[in-house]
Amino acid sequence: xLDLAIIGGGPAGLTAGxxxxxxxxxxxxxxxxxxxxxxxxxxxxxENYPGIKEVVTGMExxxxxxEQCMRFGLKHEMAEVKQVKKEGENFTVILASGKEVEAKNVxxxxxxxxxxxxxxxxxxxxxxxxxxxxxxDGFFYKDKEVAVLGGGDTALEEAVYLSNICxxxxxxxxxxxxRAAPSTIEHLKSKENIELVLNSTxxxxxxxxxxxxxxxxxxxxxxxxxxKVPGIFTFVGMNVNNGVLKQDDxxxxxxxxxxxxxxxxLSMKTSLxxxxxxxxxxxxxxxxxxxAAGDGAVAALQAIARSL
Length: 308
Ligand code: FAD
Ligand code: NAP
Fold this sequence. Notes:
Blueprint: E1 2-7, H1 11-22, E2 28-32, H2 58-62, H3 65-70, E3 75-78, E4 81-86, E5 91-95, E6 100-108, E7 112-114, E8 130-131, H4 134-137, E9 145-149, H5 153-163, E10 168-172, H6 182-189, E11 194-197, E12 200-208, E13 211-219, E14 224-227, E15 231-234, E16 238-240, E17 275-277, H7 289-307
Helix pairs in contact: 1-7, 5-6
Residues 117-118, 149-155, 157, 174-175, 179, 201, 235-238, 259 line the site of NADP nicotinamide-adenine-dinucleotide phosphate (NAP).
């Protein structure tokens, strides 16, 4: 029986493991289906992690984490978790292999993944001008023009955020109407340096080995427009990695938001005793490494408190 099972080994899961084991929990296993480190390992540059003064790659940032986090006894099992159940006092963690592991507490840290829009050049220039994170990459385009794709709350909020850093923001949306909240639409429209490019999609993003040079949009009449921007931010929805919480009858193990994120309180407690969530999987996550790590620490301290 584990004292604590941690599902996911990104910044949230690793930090939860560090705090849980250093804080005295004995049997703690982190189930991570890939290499520990999480999605930041795909980033070519990160400059907003406190204490790391130079711009480093995500890989460089995360490289020392597993060794430090496992120093106090955290175990890593490289395995995909299929489902987490609770019948009675304890949890059952069911792995893709069919193996079942019992645990007294569980922290879910499986993250969420931005969807790709599917235009030409998106994958080629991802991380080299195409981004899904304005907080992470907006500053690289200070006083420059950028484009944003999408018409939901995220796209509009991030377009407003970017408009405070960049000289101009082109907001490209495939329809006339936005699906964002009315107040967010009003806020967007109050920004003089945001230009709406409506009824339009991205045909392709082009550039060279230095990065993106521009984006070609096409409207419903087939008219093309060449926006010479070095950065394009896509916000076309998120896949929340909540599958492990889905039960056999289709319900979730704990309360979820309408968008599929785990509802937690400020202690990272879910609606189910002994189950915690940390990082990008939780409601209102700022989706930053420093925040995910902070969440992991909070959740672990709560798991320790519950075990005393
Ligand atoms: P994740 O990092 O997503 O980790 C979740 C882990 O869970 C993954 O390793 C995954 O393999 C594992 N997992 C999922 N499902 C299962 C399962 N069923 N079984 C076992 N394991 C599972 N943040 C910043 O602060 N600054 C930046 O500059 C920055 N740049 C970014 C650039 C890019 C390209 C991307 C993609 C993200 C960037 N972020 C940045 C955001 C940052 O990466 C996330 O906020 C952070 O990684 C979230 O951590 P997490 O631990 O919650 O989730
Ligand atoms: P979303 O609401 O699903 O919006 C995605 C947007 O991207 C839509 O406008 C969609 O266009 C567009 N889109 C999807 N696929 C596309 C493609 N391949 N090419 C071009 N455009 C594409 O996603 P989200 O904005 O990330 O929000 C997710 C959920 O979180 C939403 O329910 C949202 O309300 C919520 N949220 C809330 C807040 C808040 O309350 N402050 C903040 C952020 C997010 P169509 O409109 O034509 O479908």
